[in-house]
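tool=predict chain=A
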Amino acid sequence: MLVRSPGFGVGFPEALPLSRGGTPDSLSASAATAQNPIGQRFLDADLHSRCSFTRCFVRRENPLNVSVGQHFIAGAWREGADGFDLRQRVEPFEPVGTWPRADEALIVEALEASRAGRASWLALSAVERAACLRRVLEHLLANHAWSSHLGSFLGVQPGEIAGEQTELERLIRGEPSGADSGASRPARTAELGAEVGVVFARWTDFVSGLYQRIATQLASDRGVVVLSDNRWPVSADALGAAISAAGMPTGVVSIVHGLSAPLRDTLIAMAASVAPDESEGHLLLRAQTVPFTLDLGGHEQSNRSIVVREECELAQTALEVVDQAFGRASSLSGQRPGRVARVICNVRVFSRFCEHLLTAIEGSVDVKQPIPQIDNEAINAVRALWNLGLDEGATLIFGGECFEAAPGSRARDPRVWPAIYSNVDPEMALSRMRQTVPVLCLIRAESDEAAEQLALDLG
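tool=predict ok
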């Protein structure tokens, strides 16, 4: 079996300094379109309308200083008794900040506060709501230290984080979103007529995606509780600062950090109408008084396929596949939901396409310097997929030893090199993988039509 191993001399970039950007150019006011996540209800809204709101307490002079994170409940910033530290994923592994943990009493308090704040949100007109949401976006654009923090955390230039600034500008103009925010995914519902939407943030939402998921819940006349992702809580923190500065009705949006696995499982069980363990009965009984929906962010539909037709320009298509499967900006080195995980190729051009693909891989700077894996379970997931592919009879054509720690890191955050499998059958479990890890499957199809059908079947 011929296997091409990366074999690159990899340099690990120095951490980038944190900086604040300036205020963006003023954008012309326009009414929100039907595609805008805030919904049809704001079609005729005057987005510059200024109304009187109850101002939330602003935590500190620089609310995006994330050295100490806080919960945001009932319009006030709250410290926690216990906390967890977050450090950069690259040398020199400097601390980013400390965030508090949540207990069941705090989660119930956040649910109740958001339900109470919902009444004030419902009392606003469509014009007032749209103006408030616009101010949130304006604040995020004018105070985007979160982008520099993320760049420093991952060891990338802020511009490599695909289009965050552009996405926010698009949203403020009321244009359709170009990102996969997960907002359109079906939510699990604990009870019809839910008063609160509970949003499980994903670190890959960043700021624009998390804003869209919050706005979707608000457009459905719900209060919102955001449960931040412990792997990157800064996006939720930035949204809390923007919501506070925008003067949204007190309590309508709450942000809670440090959710434990047992509490997460309890909320999911409640939303699925499955009784949780008796040890969580207190949370169940109290939270049942607040009907809620649960937005998990669409993890189950994270990967997608690309079809290579007989008439495709193979070299260009190979470059696009490498970028969308393993690119630092477009796929976060295979970690972004929506990454390409399968290539379904017409059998008449399969061997030629594979040669172009391997050439593109070997020439890719992004493959030579992957972004560190943020999910601590990613390495185990890749190993499991390797074993699964070999057990099912697929052929590893690129990969080999794919784990390498940053120099002097004591294996704190190993990089995961891409792995490419050929001879993948559509019936194999490998072809239907849902994990966001840098593994690519190459699947043959007898014709262009068959390839298109397989893409529909596999996603």
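The domain at 302-458 is CATH 3.40.309.10 (Aldehyde Dehydrogenase; Chain A, domain 2). The chain has two domains: 40-299, 302-458.
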